[in-house]
């Protein structure tokens, strides 16, 4: 059974940083592309970034240069480092095993101005 469990998130002031973590179990983590999404109130879920099994990453324009995705295959863990946060980054953030319906539980990030 695949499980995806997130940690991190919280409240931060504008300009601050946060790091999310996501542990995926029940699969050969190192073989899967992984991704981060977010969903703001009243909006559709938005792709943020993904990272291939080989470590190649892509980013949405909205976060390029501020957010950084990484993975530690020895720990089955995916990370999202978020810098220069702005109030418009306020959302629930989700980890996903890319191309599969395996999602984390979602974690709220609130950026105050």
Can you describe what's shown?
By secondary structure, this protein is mostly beta strands. The protein has no helices and eleven strands. The termini are far apart.
Short description:
This protein has no helices and eleven strands.
Q: How many individual β-strands?
A: 11
What is the global morphology?
globular
Number of helices: 0
Q: What portion of residues is helical?
A: under 10%
Strand content: over 45%
What is the end-to-end distance? Answer: 41 Å
Order of helices and strands: EEEEEEEEEEE
Keywords:
single chain; mainly beta; seven-stranded mixed β-sheet; four-stranded antiparallel β-sheet; 11 strands
What are the SSEs and their pairings?
Blueprint: E1 3-7, E2 10-13, E3 18-25, E4 34-39, E5 46-51, E6 57-59, E7 67-72, E8 77-82, E9 91-97, E10 102-103, E11 107-112
Parallel strand pairs: 2-11
Antiparallel strand pairs: 1-3, 3-8, 4-5, 4-9, 5-6, 7-8, 9-10, 9-11
């Amino acid at each position: 059974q695949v499980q995806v469990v997130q940690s991190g998130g919280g409240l931060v002031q504008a300009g601050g940083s946060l790091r999310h973590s996501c542990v995926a179990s029940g699969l050969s983590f190192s073989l899967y592309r992984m991704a981060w999404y977010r969903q703001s109130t009243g909006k559709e879920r938005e792709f943020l970034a993904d990272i291939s099994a080989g470590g190649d990453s892509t980013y949405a324009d909205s976060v390029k240069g501020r957010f950084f995705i990484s993975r530690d295959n020895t720990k089955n863990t995916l990370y999202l480092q978020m810098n220069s946060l702005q109030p418009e980054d306020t959302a629930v953030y989700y980890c996903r095993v890319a191309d599969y319906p395996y999602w984390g539980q979602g974690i709220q990030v609130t950026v105050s101005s």
